Structure formats: structure tokens, C-alpha cells
Amino acid sequence: MTTVELRFSAQPEHVRTARLVAAAVARRAGVDEAVLDEVRLAVGEACSRAVGLHRSHGITAPVSVALIEEEKSFSVEVSDEVPGPGDDPALGGPVTTRGATPGAGLDEPAHESDADGEDEMGLAVISGLVDDVEVRSGANGGVIRMSWPKTPATVLP
């Protein structure tokens, strides 16, 4: 198993670099050319989501991207350091998505619901692009893991 790791400051201008590196590593790993645009778009969406979460929560830690080449698949893990809603740091309980803010009511500022809507839209786009996607969140942050099959190598006679 080969892994390439990227860490970048939570700035929107770095998302493009992460997308391009992910597509290049996916190509080298043997992902079908027809799927590379999906890889590029999904990684861009996941990284944009992580950058937005870091910026909206005032987190200065970098966003992490792991590009993992396995025997039959290529996986990407985009990690942020924003605790999931309702997580008790002492318990470290996971949640599947971070769309809802605990205790959010009608008196919440409008930008909170807009951010939640963008987060949910980003997850919907990723789900539409990737067949194998997992979203985890806990007290130490969240991870979006996406996987694509590798193209089997053709054996010439």
C-alpha cells in the first residue's frame, strides 16, 4: 500500500492544488481515465468543505489529505479538525454527518443555517460523484473517505 499525504493551510486557493495532486496520484495508481474527473471534483468538494469548516470555526490547523493506493482500489481521506456537533470531547462519540447544529432554533443567525446548507450540499455532491464514500465525525474532527476501483492491468499474450 502506497500513501501520499498532503497538508495545507485552510485557504481556498490551496484546494486546486489538492485536486490536481489527487488526480495525478489516481492516474498513477491505475484509476480509469474516465473516472479521473470524478476524483478531481470529489476531492475538490471535500477539501473545500474542510477549508470552510476550519475557517468558520477559527481553526488554524492544516487540512489533511491522504491518497492511498491499495491493491484493487484508490482511496482519498480528507480530514478536518472540527469536532462534530453534540460530541462530548471526553466521550469521542462519532456522528455520521454534521449538517445540524444542536440546539439551533429560530433565533440562530442566518449565516449558521447557510453554512449548514452548504455543508449538506457538499456532502450531496460528493455522494453523487463517489459510489463508495464514508463520512465520520468525532471529538477530534471529521474524515471523508472516498474510494474508486483501479483498472485491472491488461496482460498481453
If you had to describe this structure to a student in words, what would you say it looks like?
There is one protein chain. It contains 3 helices and 5 strands, in the order E-H-H-E-E-H-E-E. The chain has helices at residues 15-29, 36-56, 110-129, and strands at residues 2-8, 63-69, 73-79, 132-138, 141-149. It has 157 residues and is an alpha+beta fold. It is globular and about 60 Å long. The relative contact order is 0.20. Strand 2 and strand 3 (73-79) form a beta hairpin. The two termini are 28 Å apart. Strands 1-2-3-5-4 form a 5-stranded antiparallel β-sheet, with helices on one face. Residues 87-113 have low confidence and may be disordered.
List the helices and strands and how they pair.
Elements: E1 2-8, H1 15-29, H2 36-56, E2 63-69, E3 73-79, H3 110-129, E4 132-138, E5 141-149
Antiparallel strand pairs: 1-2, 2-3, 3-5, 4-5
Helix pairs in contact: 1-2, 2-3
In short:
The protein is of the alpha+beta class.
Question: What keyword list fits this structure?
Answer:
157 residues; alpha+beta; five-stranded antiparallel sheet
- The class by helix and strand makeup works out as alpha+beta
Summed over residues and divided by their number, the pLDDT gives a mean of 81
Q: Based on CA inertia axes, which overall geometry fits?
A: globular
Number of helices: 3
* Largest β sheet strand count, sense and barrel closure: 5 strands, antiparallel
Query: What share of the residues lie within helices?
Result: 25-40%
In angstroms, what is the radius of gyration? Answer: 17 Å
Distance between the termini: 28 Å
User: What's the total count of β strands?
Assistant: 5
Which strand-content bin applies to the residues? 15-25%
Q: Order of strands across the biggest sheet?
A: 1-2-3-5-4
What are the secondary-structure elements, in order, as H or E? EHHEEHEE
The poorly predicted ranges are: 87-113
